[in-house]
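Design request, tokens follow.
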């Protein structure tokens, strides 16, 4: 019985330490996304075999998902590892099989596909439907059938109607632009730390 209480206490301490270590900051998320402007200059969707975990392309190139992936890594969140581990356990819950003919997870590309990130965010309980786009929120769009896009809501807004700008990479590297309502929105996500903040 004594061992049970000791183990429980140790697990609780580990949980509190993990919560303290992951206190997500939307402000920092936006800053880390913005820091990619002028560095990620190219949109390059080519498949590249990445190291694992924390694999990445050279900063000069990437796709829309890489903006989110790189910004989250500054807060200790490696979407490559998290999505890969979740897909290993729940592969059939992800939309990759009919779409890309995948038979097993691929740590080099799965986290770089918008539908997979949408499913992962939904599975984390990060989907919101409040219609209030806050700095640090993540938004997904459908550019045309079967072509998704993803970006981060900025803390900057348009002058006239105060619409939030979006930090994303749609074709010419990472940019901060007025595109929130330019395409059909398919997802709205807000990352919450374990403490509920």
């Amino acid at each position: 019985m004594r061992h049970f209480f000791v183990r429980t206490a140790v697990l609780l301490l580990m949980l509190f330490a993990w919560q303290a270590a992951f206190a997500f900051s939307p402000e920092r998320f936006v800053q880390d996304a913005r820091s990619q402007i002028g560095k990620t200059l190219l949109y390059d969707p080519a498949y590249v075999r990445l190291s694992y975990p924390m694999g990445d392309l050279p900063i000069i190139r990437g796709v829309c998902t890489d903006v989110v992936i790189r910004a989250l890594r500054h807060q200790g969140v490696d979407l490559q590892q998290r999505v890969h581990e979740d897909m290993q356990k729940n592969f059939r819950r992800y939309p990759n099989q009919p779409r890309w003919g995948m038979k097993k997870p691929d740590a080099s590309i799965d986290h770089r596909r918008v539908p997979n990130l949408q499913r992962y965010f939904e599975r984390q309980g990060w989907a919101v439907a409040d219609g209030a786009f806050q700095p640090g929120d993540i938004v997904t769009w459908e550019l045309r059938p079967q072509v998704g896009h993803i970006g981060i809501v900025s803390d900057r807004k348009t002058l006239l109607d105060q619409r939030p700008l979006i930090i994303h990479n749609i074709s010419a590297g990472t940019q901060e632009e007025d595109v929130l309502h330019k395409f059909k929105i398919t997802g709205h996500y807000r990352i919450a730390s374990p403490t509920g903040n």
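Comment from the thread starter after seeing the answer: thanks! The chain is about 35% helix and 20% strand.
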